[in-house]
Amino acid sequence: MQTLAIEYLRATAQRFPERVALVDGDRRITFAGLWEQGVALASAILQAGVGGNIPVLLEIPKSIEAVVGLVAVQLTGNIYVPVDLAAPAARRESARLVLGDHGRLGFVQGEFVWDGVGLGPVGKWSGKGLPEAVGRRVAKRNSTDPLYVIFTSGTTGVPKGVTIANASVIDYIDWAVRVYGVTEEDSIASQAPFFFDNSVLDLYLMMARGATLHLLAPMVLMFPATLVEYLRDQEITMLFFVPSLLSNLASLDMLAQYSLPRLNKILFAGEVMPLPTLKYLRRHFPEALLSNLYGPTEITVDAIYWVAGDAASLERLDSVPLGWACENSEILFLDEENRLVAVPDVQAEICVGGVGVGLGYWNNPEKTREVFIQHPGHPAYRDNVYKTGDLGYVSSRDGLIYFNGRKDHQIKHQGYRIELGEIETALLKLPGVHQCCVLYDAERKEIVAWHSPVAGLDARKMQAALRGALPAYMVPRRFVVVEALPLTANGKVDRAGLWTLYQKTHHG
Amino acid sequence: MADPADISRRIGEFFEAEFPRSDAVLTDTTDLLRDWLVDSAGIVSTTLFLESEFGIQMRRADINAVHFQSIRSLTAYVVGRLANPRGK
Q1: Distance between CA A113 and CA A134 in Å, rounded?
Q2: Residue ranges covered by each domain of chain A
Q3: How close does chain B come to A297, measured CA to CA in Å?
Q4: Which residues contact A132 (CB under 8 A, 6 or more apart)?
Q5: Domain for residue B2, yes or no?
Q6: pLDDT at residue A156, rounded to an integer
Q7: Nearest beta carbon to residue B64 from set A223, A458, A463
Q8: Which of A65, A226, A242, A364 gives 20 to 30 Å between its CA and that of A256?
Q9: Mean pLDDT value of segment A428-435
């Protein structure tokens, strides 16, 4: 029985040593090369001195070196934490504080760097098995040990480090291989940055099956024609994208001019898939597997999935379903009192149980207890379910699960999960801002901030200041100054009223 | 005859309205991809704007980093398409 996710790569490197594992622009690396470099780097890190089972910040842009790095971290018996290098330094620092004791792996001017010190030429491991020190570390690891920590937005401004175990990833990947029929003949286009958990499917399908993973450069993803030409020229067979990227292709009708005969598996997750985009894809890919996936970061990538039928069946839908529970996932619907709601068509909070449920938030037992709760149907033994905060229901019409909004102020923007409260917290830290409210204009896909007038701090300075505190995708696009925010009867900001007012001005 | 100054002004107004930035000044030569935070969705909305505003058909292969470099390069592209709508 497989214990650690890294065993996928070990087995595949033996089975398909000369197959290409990664394509990164003009550069490629084989499975043997990836394994040998990962082992050699792990040895070098151990010589530099590091304990076991600690989080290691992976401070390397998405590249072959980043994958070598996350392989090596696992082989040192540690937990990789992919870093968003474009995030402001203050936000990255607050993530470091959350982690406590941790290591840092970088790649600077052609050299791997451990905790700020260059490791020198790392080379490749060419021996049999593993070096003794690495082997000892790997042997100590259990399937329930964490594999990675990925940070998500937190309302207080402190990001939360979701911790996922090896066993959860193995269970998820084995399921995905069965459902999607991935083989060594597949070429997968990787869109998700490594700090976004969609990347877990890309990375471990590659390692598990010997498929080739193409690490798409930002400029390839930026321009629809460049993207489609890449998919065509590289004969990509499978992709796992956020829906907005696929909507871009539909908006410009790219597929009328470009044919992608090799593409046969199109997976999407991270935000709501618009039904017109799905119909567009089906029209141009009548035979391809089109699959919607759903799962917050706190779950191992996905807990619900759906495979789209033919064009006629899509005409009967009002929206794209989330679908059914993935194997070994359990979907529960709970009311405000955490009681089970088992009636079709009745909306309640989507909660997820099963082996994919995360271990909690790193060093944050309070937040963990809030949302990782005891399974209400299994009071006699420990069995956590994760409260997603998403609302949904099971339709009596087709038995499928549908998404129906959020119970709080969390949004999905450009595929990123954002707590609007975190933006409000950052705004309130600016000198003189006493009152603010942040809302999301889903139609225009932009974040809008209202705030009280501030002497000496105009919108220009405010936006610049927020860029120092928040990732670019979280900085509001529009700022509206109001003398006073409208309040509800119980004294809270009247978000609905504010939104109605905004719609009248901006949406006619 | 298309007036490049007028085209440039209308494109600039579009960027100011659709991708407002209070902390920088937009000029004809501002690097749109590096300094104006236009993302992939912005590329799509800009394309659709150019097509409807100026009545041109933008070839999909022309939606690239060269033409989207700046307002000046977008203006040159629009002027070229208006002068030669079917040209390559």
Answers
A1: 18
A2: 28-141, 330-406, 418-506
A3: 24
A4: none
A5: no
A6: 78
A7: A223
A8: A242
A9: 82
Q: Is the pLDDT at B37 greater than 70, yes or no?
A: no
B22 interfacial to chain A (CB closer than 8 Å): yes
In angstroms, what separates the C-alpha of A252 from chain B's closest C-alpha? Answer: 7
B68 neighbourhood in chain A, CB within 8 Å:
223
Class of domain A330-406: mainly beta
Residue A507's pLDDT band (boundaries 50, 70, 90)? low
Residue of A219, A227, A249, A252 best to disrupt the B interface, most CBs of B under 10 A: A252
Does residue B20 lie within any of the structural domains? no
CATH second-level architecture of A28-141?
3-Layer(aba) Sandwich (3.40)
- In CATH, what is the architecture of A418-506? 2-Layer Sandwich (3.30)
**In Å, how far is A64's CA from the nearest CA of chain B?**
24
Full domain range(s) for residue B38: 29-88
- Name every residue whose Cβ is closer than 8 Å to that of residue A35 and which is 6 or more positions away in sequence: A9, A10, A13, A71, A125
* Inside any domain, residue B51: yes
> Chain A contacts of B64, Cβ < 8 Å?
223, 225-226
Side chain identity at A383, as an amino acid letter? Answer: D
Q: Do A257 and B60 count as a contact with CB atoms less than 8 A apart? A: yes
Residue A30 sits at φ, ψ, to 5 deg, of: -85, 170
What is the phi/psi pair of residue A340, to 5°?
A: -65, 135
Averaged confidence pLDDT in chain A: 93
Nearest by CB to residue A251, choosing from B23, B44, B68, is: B44
Residue at B37 is within a domain: yes
When divided into structural domains, chain B yields a total of 1
A268, two tokens: 């999407």
Give the residue from chain A lying closest to B40, CA to CA. Answer: A222
